[in-house]
Specification:
By secondary structure, this protein is of the alpha/beta class. The chain has 14 helices and eleven strands. The chain is globular.
Amino acid sequence: MGKNIRRLVFIAIGLLLNSGSAMGASLEESFKGETINFIVGYSPGGLFDTYTRLIARYFGKHVPGNPIAVVQNMPGAGGILAANHVYNRAKPDGLTIGAWASPLVLQNVMGNEATKFDGRNFGYLGVPSAYDTVCTLSEASGIKTPEDWLAAKRPVRIGGIAPGTGPSDIPKLMREAIGMPMQIVEGFKGAADVRLAIEGGELEGFCGPWQSVRSIWRAAFDSGKMRPVLQATLKAHPELKAVPLVSQYAKTPEARALLKVADDAYRLQFPYTLPPGTPRDRLQILQKAFLETFQDPELVAEAQKSKLEIDPVDGSTTGATLGGLYKLTPGTIERLKAMLVPGKK
């Protein structure tokens, strides 16, 4: 009788082990023959779109089953259309990855009713590189330093995109925190359109990612027609050590707190996200694949050739940082609303 019991136990253990192995194999093969869709919330040609198309060319190599990866652009409302789509309509099967700007999470925290999502519920894969905002001004503005800007007798015209995007929101936070005189002119589709407006004399500057600005305005920097004047992050970019940080001009705890919000909400600018409810095992597989993609020698070589920075931040860190915005105090949120939420005064 004892031998029979032991035999049954061994059989049961074997069945469990085989079952677990089969489940693991099934999970590893779950993406085989599938297509992963990257949904970019902006028009083709921008920095986010460029990063996404680079990632998509190599991502499938690092996902079990080697699925195909394709990119679809879904521009609208500064990325809100894409974020809402991924959150509310995409199936939580790991086959849809959203690419939209992180400041939309802050818009949701502040009660922007157009954002039909809760930023704490997305599955975050990470970001390809931190977003280092620098304000660049034209030679025609007559401004060479932050001190010149602070002393300007009229507001400097800065090109923006839409509420919820860094080029629109960060200048507003700077204006509130340190009194930088500026007029933010919104409605441009991207940095390329802002460049044309600056060249035409309609605008005088732009506060956007150095990763994009240095390419778009390279010739203008070399000729002195554009100047990087102020970094809007709390940590200097290695290439901009001589350009002052905005935090140097924050004189009060309240001002420093606003700049901290700007850093938390906007520095991890390019998060890649899965719909809420995506199974944890699938999320973990894709998080791992996301980081491995940036170690792919072919991707690294292509990024270097295209002058795209690759310094990824993992999904857990990205989710924790953006989720932390929901812990802002009611008083801070109300102050932010007055600055950043459309229609609020």
